[in-house]
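> forwarded from #structure-qc
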């Protein structure tokens, strides 16, 4: 696996390089974003680790340029911890975010997790509509697998169908009756709402989502359910 490391602090870049090489990764190390863009086309990168606050071209700008042509995972490393920076980074195409000072073993765990997710997403030509990957959720319709926070979660057939439908329509409310018809292939009656509520509760429990204040599966009272993007 080839890892790109870009940080204008030589000591940080060298430290990351040592840990990556000890884990048998091939490392391409740069201290400048512009130098990366000059060479990127000839490099076969599997993952990039970018510092945010670099002189000249910063990490955000470099990430945008990379995302014009490449889909490999990008992890930001930065001393800035404000939420707005995290939002900016993840919105423009980064996959993860770690703040300085960081524990090298934590960074290595993030690297391995992102490479595993990327491999699962792209193997056997499955970079298509059968896989949905967002907000720590990775769900594969072909293999009937669900990963949450990089851990595999076992779902029943019904739970999987409900979650797939909500993920497929992420950002939008799925009406209760539409959800029931999609999963059970039957006409919906008001009493069926209790059945859906039970399965939603089980899904939340498996995702460790607070039922009273959920972050993932949101109840829109009187209408249905949705998962935010």
């Amino acid at each position: 696996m080839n890892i790109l490391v870009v940080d204008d602090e030589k000591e940080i870049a060298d430290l990351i390089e040592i840990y990556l090489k000890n884990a048998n990764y091939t490392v391409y190390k740069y201290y400048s974003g512009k130098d990366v863009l000059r060479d990127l086309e000839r490099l076969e990168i599997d993952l990039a680790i970018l510092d945010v606050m670099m002189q000249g071209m910063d990490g955000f700008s470099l990430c945008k340029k990379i995302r014009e042509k490449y889909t490999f995972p990008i992890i930001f490393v930065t001393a800035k911890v404000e939420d707005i920076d995290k939002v900016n980074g993840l919105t423009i195409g980064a996959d993860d975010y770690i703040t300085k000072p960081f524990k090298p073993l934590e960074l290595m765990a993030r690297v391995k997790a992102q490479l595993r997710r990327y491999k699962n997403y792209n193997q056997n030509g499955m970079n298509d509509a059968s896989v949905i990957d967002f907000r720590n959720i990775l769900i594969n319709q072909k293999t009937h697998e669900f990963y949450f926070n990089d851990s595999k979660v076992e779902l029943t057939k019904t739970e999987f169908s409900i979650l797939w439908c909500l993920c497929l329509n992420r950002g939008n409310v799925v009406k209760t009756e539409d959800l029931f018809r999609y999963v059970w292939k039957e006409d919906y009656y008001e009493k069926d709402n209790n059945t859906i509520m039970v399965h939603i509760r089980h899904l939340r429990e498996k995702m460790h989502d607070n039922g009273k204040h959920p972050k993932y599966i949101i109840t829109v009272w009187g209408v249905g359910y949705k998962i935010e993007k």
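QC bot note: The mean pLDDT is 86. The CA atoms of residues 171 and 229 lie 5 Å apart.
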